[in-house]
Design brief:
PH-domain like, alpha+beta, PRTase associated wHTH domain-containing protein, 8-stranded antiparallel β-sheet, wHTH-PRTase_assoc
Length: 188
Amino acid sequence: MEKLIAQAQVYYIVGYGRDRSVYDDKKWVLGRVYLTNKRLLFKKLDRFIEVKYEDVLTIAERDKYPRISPPMGWARGNILEIKHYEFGDKRHILTSLISANFDVTLKLRAILTKMIGEKVVEMTEMHKKVLLLLYTGMKDNILISYLLDIEINEVEKLIEDLKFRGLISSDLLLTAEGTKVVDEIRRR
């Protein structure tokens, strides 16, 4: 039985790109997105566009995207890029975009990631140390690398993991969830 997990009002573009081609004529559509336990649904008026989770290949978060600008109306526009098979046809890959305020984008990404079964990154002691440094306002990867005695590319990977978990934003600011984790770490 299909169950509704989440829904949100967003701007979206289904089929921004196909395989390696990008379409210039695509416009943002204001509509709703529904996440069920089986599929992702885009809705505008009475029309639904379905993407089954088994057809989703990758999910990525971007601040900007070439050839289009984020829609107006959001205080901060983040774009969630979803690459999926073209409605079950495994010969072609479509790129669909969702744009909403940061918290909505983050939540949608977390739910989609869980639904398609991507591995959640384990929170190591090094993740916690980087999170604490970011909490104090330190954003310089070179300095973080020096303080923790690790390579810069390792710092970058740890930061990407923290973004993936929804603990920090792309600006390296802690989210509400990230602040909760820091509070737990500091209590120990």
